[in-house]
């Protein structure tokens, strides 16, 4: 294990927020740049809604004085629940740099690749935030949140009368109009878990109804509709001192119950880190940010980058994913978030261990520009 500690370098002041077109934003990338960076968010650059580990200063150093990006980077997180455009604005405000929506890759971002299959089919989406809005912005035409869907079935949740907070949440929702079809008689063609569900009991009940009936709750057993999870983290680091149960824990609960009440085991697909697809997709996105920096085939074979750095705090998600993805990924583990596993894992050891994201960026810049 290598632990890296170096002194800070004076940082440039953050530039003022301006609306920049992507072409202009990335037009001044340095021609010699042959690397990129992927940052995890929770426990690495933010804890709750507060920057940690010198993240604001570290990110500022990736821009030049005019606000143009010097080093291509993106945020690669299993979190989500809101559109990438809104998350980019939120990150910009919290971190003091201008983040574009294309620089935010959330756990559910790959769901947009399923648009051709389900664009005009009835689908349900669940999770904290605005799951139906997320899917609508991806282009899905007939999507309902699980809150909305359950409201069309009387008594589908037998304890709903005790959940006054659920009633208030539904009554304040205004992003969707009344569907032009009869929800209770139309078959659900797919279910999507966008982010960590809020009401586990209700969601498990309704998803079991949908999945074991073939998409029509209350009917006889039918073929299970496809089920997709944006990520499969068992735990994650949030604002609370110890880790919180994540989407993977919800998946385990749903699967355990479904398999006890149905004759066939639950079928599902999970996305998110450490899936190698996520890292390959991130590589493709980063390469679009730096058209002038693409390496020649003689330098790096088929890869546009000599090195891609994954900076994360979860060994079994961030580090495992980067190591499984292989070249050109280089894994850096930070310990700022105090994630209980934030130390080198014997099976998936990080290439570098640091205390803060600022130390990680300092190491990268010195390694790339001064080595």
TrEMBL record:
GO annotation (BP), single: glycerophospholipid biosynthetic process
Gene Ontology CC annotation, any one: mitochondrion
Top-rank lineage group of the source organism: Eukaryota
Matching InterPro entries: CDP-alcohol_PTase-I, HAD-like_sf, HAD-SF_hydro_IIA, HAD-SF_hydro_IIA_CECR5, HAD_sf
Pfam families on file: Hydrolase_6, Hydrolase_like
PANTHER family membership: CDP-DIACYLGLYCEROL--GLYCEROL-3-PHOSPHATE 3-PHOSPHATIDYLTRANSFERASE-RELATED, HYDROLASE FAMILY PROTEIN _ HAD-SUPERFAMILY PROTEIN
The protein's name: Hydrolase family protein / HAD-superfamily protein
Annotated source species: Acer saccharum
Organism ancestry: Eukaryota, Viridiplantae, Streptophyta, Embryophyta, Tracheophyta
